[in-house]
Amino acid sequence: PTLVVLISGNGSNLQAIIEAIRAGRIAARVAAVISNRVDAYGLQRAADAGIPTETLDHTAFASREAFDQALQERVDSFHPDLVVLAGFMRIFTPGFVQHFAGRMLNIHPSLLPLYKGIHTHRRVLEDGGNEHGVSVHFVTPELDGGPVIMQAKVPVLPSDTEERLAQRVHVQEHVIYPRVVKWFVEGRLKLENGQALLDGKI
Ligand code: GRF
Fold first, then answer.
1. 108 is catalytic
2. What residues make up the domain containing 179?
3. Ligand 1 centre from 89 Cα, in Å?
4. Which family does it belong to (predicted)?
């Protein structure tokens, strides 16, 4: 199976997937890494791993539709079985999401359905919550609202800052995202009637 990974930044989740492939845990190939930002460090990680990269600068497009159309064409050119969003910080048009329905995953740093959107770590701390975490889900038109496949929890500690909490969440991200990608490429994971099924079960 072929993956295309979309990033906007650091790319540590991309790195975790690359390493899982290299270690033989995921039998897939990353055909390309595409970033909407030229300065994304993940582009370097991809290049270091010998993976082709592309940059599609969203600010060069007149509208969200025009950007999504161009991005869709670039992604399609690699014929991926799965599109992996790994810190891709753009909201998609419904048409884009529809096109990749059932074959696009996202990782979101919260225990969904809690804390959709950005600045999740900060908001958890502001709310005085004692539990936080990360979710991997299928992408549907509702932002961060698609069916959750796997979550990992982390405690919120009294000594936490936004950075410390984010770091603790990241450790879990790098554990669960490769695992879910593995399930997908093995054909064990499907989106059916709006539900995520693993081995045919919810
Ligand atoms: C992660 O926190 C992920 O949950 C969120 O964006 C961040 C990406 O981190 N969607 P990285 O670029 O993979 O290091």
1. yes
2. 2-116+134-153+170-198
3. 9
4. Belongs to the GART family.
